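Notes from hallway chat w/ T.B., transcribed later so I don't forget. T.B. wanted the structure written out for a chain they're using in a teaching module, and asked if we could keep both sequence and structure tokens in one place. Agreed to drop them here.
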Amino acid sequence: MPASPATIEAARKASNYLIIRTAAIRGIEGKDWYASARTELRMLCENEGFNYNTFIKVMGATSPQCPVWMNIRHTIRVCRALKLNNDAVTAVMSVPGLAGSVRKATIKALNADDTSTLGPKTRAFAENLLGNEDMVTLDTWMGQLVGLPAKISGRVTTKTISTPYNFTVKRIADNLGWTPAMVQAACWKYASSNLGSRGHGEQDFKAMISRAVMTA
């Protein structure tokens, strides 16, 4: 099936160096989001007695269509359940609020040695949080940045859009002396602050973790 006009237009914008670079510069305060997140999440895992790699795999699996603080809450609940019962299926099934597809993805991730069972977006997100900043997380905000309406912004992970998008982000990273993840995080900051549901993007990781812990 040929790509839709919306997908073709999004791919065109994803290829536009100036559009993506401008967004990154305007969102520059968010470029170190992953580094800050890693620091705060490692402290959380140390305090809770969680394995960091396991925590991040679960966080990747439970991240789709989910605010970051709620993503962390889901992950805390799963990891606490694992401490009580080390069986992945039993632990995941005991956690409320997870969609069926998310439960399946989480169980697969827990039974894998790496992030390979995760989808394109969720794997890149997990890898970024594990310290691999060469991968580019293309989430719904990145979709909206290149003009996809919110309802279909998940199409950003299709090859038609993701291939030129990754290429553009990596070109910009080389130009700015940043990592690709830094460029994406800066673009995400700009998009989440200025597009769609404005102000929905979350930046204060300590506040998000506090909220997640209090409600987990």
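Follow-up for T.B.: The chain has a mean pLDDT of 94. Might be a good example for the class.
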